Automatic annotation (TrEMBL):
Keywords assigned by UniProt, alphabetized: Lyase, Signal
PROSITE patterns in the record: VOC
Annotated ranges, domain VOC: 29-150
Stored InterPro entries: Glyas_Bleomycin-R_OHBP_Dase, Glyas_Fos-R_dOase_dom, GlyoxalaseI/FosfomycinResist, VOC_core
Any coiled-coil regions, as ranges: none
Signal peptide span: 1-21
Pfam family membership, one: Glyoxalase
PANTHER family listed in its UniProt record: GLYOXALASE FAMILY PROTEIN, VOC DOMAIN-CONTAINING PROTEIN
Organism whose genome encodes this protein: Arachidicoccus rhizosphaerae
One GO MF term: lyase activity
Protein name: Lactoylglutathione lyase
Length: 152
């Protein structure tokens, strides 16, 4: 009887040790998004003043980079060097969530920045089937930006 109990305890300890010794699989996580820009000062001002992002320290200190915090441990890197503005497809866009799309639109209008719905209707927003409002506009380098009021 003592042997059976000892074997059961030993088996349990062995099983617990192997389960506790296992680690959860590590999945990739987003670290940063890099955007190649023609005029770093103009783009930095745009993402700071229009979008409302906070810049963070970048390690290069070479005048060719601006980094912004866009989430927990996630950065947006602006990198200078693009030769000219290039227009990009709206399907490839950056998206930022704000508390109020209407308040954001006021800021765009004050700055004379045109915006549109997903369908391309100027000065309009899209109302998704889940109730989220969204607008689209371009940054100084032709990258599309979506602003929405999604709640997670």
């Amino acid at each position: 009887m003592k042997i059976k109990i000892s074997l059961i305890v030993l088996a349990f300890i062995s099983l617990a040790g192997s389960v506790l010794g296992q680690t959860a699989p590590v999945h990739p996580s987003l670290n940063h998004i890099a955007v190649y820009v023609a005029d770093l000062q103009v783009s930095t001002g745009f993402y700071k003043d229009v979008i409302g992002l906070d810049s963070v320290a970048e390690p290069f200190h070479d005048g060719k980079h601006t980094w912004f915090a866009v989430g927990p441990n996630i950065k947006l890197h602006l990198i200078s060097g693009a030769k000219k503005k290039e227009f990009h497809d709206k399907n490839a866009h950056l998206c930022f969530t704000v508390p109020s799309v209407e308040a954001f639109i006021v800021n765009l209008k004050k700055r004379s920045i045109p915006f549109e719905s997903w369908e391309g209707k100027q000065g309009a927003y899209t109302l998704r089937v889940d109730g989220v409002k969204q607008i689209y506009f371009m940054d100084p380098d032709g990258y599309w930006i979506e602003i929405n009021d999604a709640r997670e």
